[in-house]
Design a protein that fits this description.
Strands 2-3-4-6-5 form a 5-stranded mixed beta barrel. By secondary structure, the chain is α/β, with parallel strands linked by helices. Helix content is 39%, strand content 26%. It folds into 2 domains: 35-110 and 190-200, OB fold (Dihydrolipoamide Acetyltransferase, E2P) (Beta Barrel), CATH 2.40.50.140; 113-188, no CATH class. It starts with a helix and ends with a strand.
């Protein structure tokens, strides 16, 4: 009798472990299936806003000035996604550049319209008047803050819209104004993901 009870307990334990193993594999498959590429992210666009997602792709740039943002490139220049540090991440390592990374976080969007651009342009002009040429003058230059070979727009609205191109601020505003005038939307969506977890894929 004792032997039969022992065998029954062993069998139940085996079944429980087997079920847990199957559930774990199912969870892993589900996670893999819901991991988006950058291009898939841009196909869904605004439908993902406010949702926690997992996305993977190659990091083409990490901002060395603080490491607070990095960028994942899709198959076209337009499909470039900004990744911001989250509460649990202090900064991104510049060594991430060129690596394939998996990022889990919350999708967000800056809706950049003509009003936003007008305010941005005004901020750059006022910054130029306040600081004079050479520092914060709308050209993107900021002494002591530049990455080698790049220029920065350190205006507050410029930082919110920064996509890592390092183009002078007033030039970016003009380019965006021209794009809005022809894209039929009346605005440009600047997508980003605030990272909760970042993992390098081998």
């Amino acid at each position: 009798m004792k032997k039969m009870m022992f065998m029954a307990i062993v069998a139940l334990a085996f079944v429980a472990c087997n079920n847990q193993s199957k559930e774990k594999k199912a969870d892993e498959k589900t996670a893999e299936a819901t991991t988006l590429t950058v291009d898939q992210f841009f196909e869904k666009g605004e439908a993902l806003l406010g949702k926690e997602i997992t996305i993977k792709g190659t990091i083409d740039h990490v901002c060395a000035n603080g490491g607070k943002k990095m960028f994942i490139q899709g198959s076209t220049p337009e499909n470039r996604l900004r990744i911001n540090v989250g509460n649990d991440i202090s900064s991104f390592d510049v060594a991430f550049e060129g690596s394939t990374m998996q990022v889990t976080g919350t999708a967000d969007m800056l809706k950049m319209d003509s009003v936003y651009l007008a305010n941005w342009e005004q901020e750059l002009i006022e910054g130029s008047h306040e600081k004079g040429s050479g520092t914060g003058d709308g050209t993107g230059n900021d002494e002591g803050q530049e990455e080698e070979g790049h220029e920065h727009d350190n205006s507050s609205l410029g930082q919110q819209a920064d996509m890592g191109e390092h183009i002078p601020g007033l030039e970016k505003v003009k380019n965006y104004q021209e794009e809005i005038a022809t894209n039929g939307k009346g605005y440009i969506p600047i997508y980003s993901v605030t990272a909760k977890e970042v993992k390098e894929l081998k």
